[in-house]
Amino acid sequence: MKLANRPVTAGRFRQRLRTLAMAVTMGASAAAANAQTPVIHIVDPSPVNWLSITWNTMEELVRVDKDGRTVPTLAESYRWVNPTTMEFKLRKGVSFQDGEAFNAKVFRRSFDEVQKSANPHPPGAFLNFAKDTELEVVDDYTVRFVFPSTDSAAIMKFRGMHVASTKFWNTNGFKNKQTGNAEGNW
């Protein structure tokens, strides 16, 4: 089986089936309950399920295209100001599913929330930003990151930093309310 000229392995095929099953379940639940209050039913209890959910429900500043190139998504552009400072121009006209407009203030909330976790990326601490990384909001659609030292993996880290609406963070965010831990919550 091939998709987009890439062979689909058995693992990818199972993952796509799980994602499809989850999407179908979500759609049926939302229609049955209330179209404005979708419910996610996890059909696979794997502790790394959050990967499928976040990659299919959230966006990042950058993604990687089919040729392995980094391309802006929530960002319109980015540039290195100097070896420890990176600036992003954020995409205008983007709204979350709950209607909230995306801007630098909303992005700041996502960054601050992710930085609160001791290990925001359980699959690999190499995806975490240094705790003393600073985020400056330059204007409504420009943010600047100041890293404590050069970080050759920075752009990859932005690929893994999921941006969510204020409502998401005000309810549960990634953490389980009972355990206070994000691991396995998805």
Architecture overview:
There is one protein chain. With 186 residues, the chain is α+β, with helices and mostly antiparallel strands. It folds into two domains: 1-57, no CATH class; 59-173, Dipeptide-binding Protein, Domain 1 (Dipeptide-binding Protein, domain 1). The chain contains five helices and eight strands, in the order ββααββββαββαα. It has helices spanning 10-33, 49-57, 104-116, 154-160, 166-171; strands spanning 2-3, 6-7, 62-64, 70-72, 75-82, 85-90, 134-139, 142-146. The protein has a four-stranded antiparallel sheet, covered by helices on one side. Strand 5 (75-82) and strand 6 (85-90) form a beta hairpin. The longest helix has 24 residues, at 10-33. It is globular and about 45 Å long. The two termini are 29 Å apart. The model is unreliable at 1-6 and 23-34 (pLDDT under 50).
Give the SSE map.
Elements lengths: L1 E2 L2 E2 L2 H24 L15 H9 L4 E3 L5 E3 L2 E8 L2 E6 L13 H13 L17 E6 L2 E5 L7 H7 L5 H6 L15
Antiparallel strand pairs: 1-2, 3-4, 5-6, 6-8, 7-8
Averaged pLDDT: 76
Shape summary: globular
Radius of gyration: 17 Å
Strand content: 15-25%
Give a quick precis of the structure.
With 186 residues, the chain is α+β, with helices and mostly antiparallel strands.
Task: Offer a few descriptive terms.
single chain, 186 residues, alpha+beta, Dipeptide-binding Protein, domain 1, 2 domains, 4-stranded antiparallel beta sheet, two-stranded antiparallel ribbon, 5 helices, 32% helix, globular
